[in-house]
């Protein structure tokens, strides 16, 4: 089996599964309980929080645990909107955001907020000047992803941070779900970023756990109320085993980042160079440093993406039709549409997303099978 769908989810590290099992079986107390088992759970909870904060160069007071990227995005967008509504109701999100951000923004529009969508260029990068032109006195929030999940374009977070440097009343949220272990933390978690969303299963932790970075001093309304966990901002009994496993995998991922990224980039470059030799293929992702080293999206003229996905699946090679969250709905890649790609062409797009678990032998096998699949599409092309 060759798994090239790591942007959808990653295989949990064995260490993550071992940590999860050990914590779930041995430190099973509720952190809110007053007895010794509760104290044990609290100590591990806070140790995990501290480790994550240190790895990101932040304070433990700025890390809040969630169920994953979708909740973190929803919380950031809706929580900030309602917290700051009395100061303004204008929100800006980029036109290529994940549905967790875009749909949250559209829902807020139904609640009386005004949403502007900042455009991107033909390569999938946010137009910073266009964003600047959208800013208004009543703008309260700007949300831009760090790494696009569909084509891998690395968004200009530093330039946006500079744009917002003298506008402290505007909260800046970054969806960093696809960024961990793929681009340097400093490139997207700048001092100007107020909120950032993360999801454990994107970097080899277990599913159902993530966290939100909230800069000290920034205010946000809770989405979940109840028992008062997470400083009364996110009530529900903490997923302690998942949190501990996530803290461990974050350390493992960042520890090997310097060695892993060149390997991943080299694999992508080989695939990119080989695919570029074929006629009737469009490469939607770039090979340059402003694209993530792990994501390569392409299409074969006249061949729908889901057809390619199943063709490779017959050879136990697993890729996807861009965003996993919209693939089963049969929707064309929203990022490509925002880039100006015609709908029919966007429907051909498939995404390869690599990881350090992959190797060159798998790349060679993929390219061998690709040649066979490509030949079978001749009539359609």
Automatic annotation (TrEMBL):
Keywords recorded for this protein, A-Z: Iron, Iron-sulfur, Metal-binding, Pyridoxal phosphate
Protein origin, superkingdom: Bacteria
Pfam family, one: Aminotran_5
PROSITE patterns assigned to the protein according to its UniProt record, in alphabetical order: AA_TRANSFER_CLASS_5
UniProt entry tagged with the keyword Transmembrane: no
Cofactors that this protein relies on: pyridoxal 5'-phosphate
Aminotransferase class V domain: residues covered: 2-366
Family to which the UniProt record says this protein belongs: Belongs to the class-V pyridoxal-phosphate-dependent aminotransferase family. NifS/IscS subfamily.
Protein's recorded name: Cysteine desulfurase
Naturally occurring in which organism (per UniProt): Streptococcus sobrinus
């Amino acid at each position: 089996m060759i798994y090239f769908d790591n942007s959808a989810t990653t295989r949990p590290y064995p260490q993550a599964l071992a940590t999860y099992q050990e914590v779930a079986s041995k430190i099973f107390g509720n952190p809110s309980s007053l007895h010794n088992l509760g104290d044990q759970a609290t100590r591990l909870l806070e140790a995990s929080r501290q480790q994550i904060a240190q790895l990101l160069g932040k304070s433990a007071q700025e890390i809040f645990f969630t169920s994953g990227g979708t909740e973190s995005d929803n919380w950031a967008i809706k929580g900030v909107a309602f917290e700051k509504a009395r100061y303004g109701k204008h929100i800006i999100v980029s036109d290529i955001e994940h549905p967790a951000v875009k749909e949250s923004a559209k829902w807020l529009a139904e609640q009386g907020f005004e949403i502007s969508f900042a455009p991107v260029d033909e390569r999938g990068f946010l137009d910073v000047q266009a964003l600047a032109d959208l800013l208004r006195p009543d703008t309260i929030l700007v949300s831009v992803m760090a790494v696009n999940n569909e084509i891998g374009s690395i968004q200009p977070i530093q330039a946006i941070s500079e744009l917002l440097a003298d506008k402290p009343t505007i909260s800046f949220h970054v969806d960093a779900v696809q960024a961990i272990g793929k681009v340097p933390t400093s490139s997207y978690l700048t001092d100007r970023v107020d909120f950032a969303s993360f999801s454990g299963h994107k970097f080899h932790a277990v599913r159902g756990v993530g966290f939100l970075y909230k800069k000290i001093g920034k205010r946000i309304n809770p989405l979940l109320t109840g028992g008062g966990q997470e400083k009364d901002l996110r009530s529900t009994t903490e997923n302690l085993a998942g949190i501990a496993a996530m803290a461990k995998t974050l350390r493992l991922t960042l520890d090997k980042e310097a060695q892993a990224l060149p390997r991943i980039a080299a694999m992508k470059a080989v695939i990119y160079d080989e695919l570029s030799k074929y006629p009737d293929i469009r490469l939607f992702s770039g090979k340059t440093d402003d694209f993530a080293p792990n994501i390569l999206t392409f299409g074969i003229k006249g061949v729908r993406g889901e057809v390619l996905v199943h063709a490779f699946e017959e050879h136990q090679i697993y890729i996807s039709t861009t965003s996993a969250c919209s693939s089963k709905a049969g929707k064309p890649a929203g990022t490509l549409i925002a880039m100006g790609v015609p709908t029919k062409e966007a429907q051909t797009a498939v995404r390869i997303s690599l990881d350090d678990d992959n190797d060159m032998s798998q790349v060679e096998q993929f390219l061998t099978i690709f040649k066979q699949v490509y030949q079978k599409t001749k009539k359609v092309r």
